[in-house]
Specification:
By secondary structure, this protein is of the alpha+beta class. The chain folds into two domains: 188 residues, no CATH class; 91 residues, Alpha-Beta Plaits, CATH 3.30.70.3040. It is 69% helix and 8% strand. It is built from nine helices and four strands, in the order ααβαβαβαβαααα. The chain has a four-stranded antiparallel sheet with strand order 2-3-1-4. The chain is elongated.
């Protein structure tokens, strides 16, 4: 395409926005409202997904070593557990350390047991994939020298099922919202193009090619998407900044944490802008097709 033709297409797309100010306002408003909803929903779902990941990573297997196991047997068990498929990490805690933790948590009354410690040496094991915790625990339980294995059997499976369901529901809702946005914005842009169908017919009758007619409208759709993304980007940024400023100090040292303001907010804003451009271009492209058949 010649530079002069390209410049002409850009000029026409800008002029069209001004000539059809009310339709431009309607289209930008539809894009703005829809992208704002999408942006807020993405903020919520991504943070819920992080919470789910944090909960999964916090799941561990507590392995009690038999009281009859000596130091060599314990080291051999640690080597065997480390070598098992699906094991991410193994941390060893002596029964003295376990008792000290109990004293710290529940008070000095438990220090009476220091002379006759009834606890077990313990391995804390984490699986590479938290969803495989149950299978890893069963493999460890089969090793010789293991007294017991606990990982929240029954509860863990329910937790993982709930987290998987939450992720799937969130993905479906985001996709449904995006398709709804594309439908609404496409129809709004279609109304704009219907109002200018005679202009398109005249251009076709004087010999303009389909792409010569189409490109200014596609560029116009792109500008509508960009303009419609500006307010959602600003509002989403301010909203998440205030939420993180309020919540982060109160969530220090807690299991549940929000995603850091940066670079997460840049990723969300980039997604909003790309969605605005895509929806605007796609809406214009699909809406103008029927009017090119003259």
């Amino acid at each position: 395409m010649k530079p002069r033709t390209t410049a002409r297409h850009f000029r026409e797309s800008f002029k069209s926005l001004g000539r059809n100010a009310w339709m431009t306002f309607a289209s930008v408003s539809a894009v703005t409202v829809t992208l704002l909803l999408v942006g807020v929903f993405v903020l919520i779902m991504m943070n819920l997904n992080k919470v789910a990941d944090d909960l999964e990573r916090d799941v561990e297997i507590k392995v009690f070593v038999s009281l009859t196991a000596d130091e060599a047997a314990t080291e051999s068990l640690e080597t065997a557990i480390n070598g098992m498929p699906g094991v991410l990490s193994v941390d060893f805690s002596t029964k003295e350390e376990e008792l000290q933790d109990l004293i710290t948590d529940y008070g000095d009354e438990l220090s009476l047991y220091k002379q006759s410690n009834p606890l077990y040496d313990v391995f804390y094991v984490k699986a590479e994939n938290p969803q495989q915790t149950a299978s890893v625990a069963k493999g460890i339980a089969a090793l010789e020298g293991i007294e017991d294995v606990k990982y929240g059997e029954g509860k863990i499976e329910k937790l993982f099922s709930f987290l998987n369901l939450s992720r799937n529901v969130g993905l479906v809702l985001i996709l449904a919202l995006l398709f709804t946005a594309m439908f609404l914005i496409s129809n709004t842009i279609r109304i704009t193009i219907v109002a200018r169908r005679h202009e398109i017919e005249i251009m076709k009758l004087v010999g303009a090619t389909n792409w010569f007619v189409r490109i200014p409208f596609i560029l116009e759709g792109m500008w509508l998407g960009v303009l419609g993304a500006i307010i959602p980007i600003a509002l989403v940024t301010m909203l998440y900044y205030n939420v993180t400023e309020y919540a982060q100090p109160r969530l220090n040292d807690e299991l549940i944490q929000l995603l850091d303001f940066t670079p997460f907010i840049y990723q969300v804003n980039g997604l909003i802008l790309l969605m605005g451009v895509f929806i605007g271009v796609w809406g214009s492209f699909m809406s103008i097709r029927k009017f090119l058949k003259v």
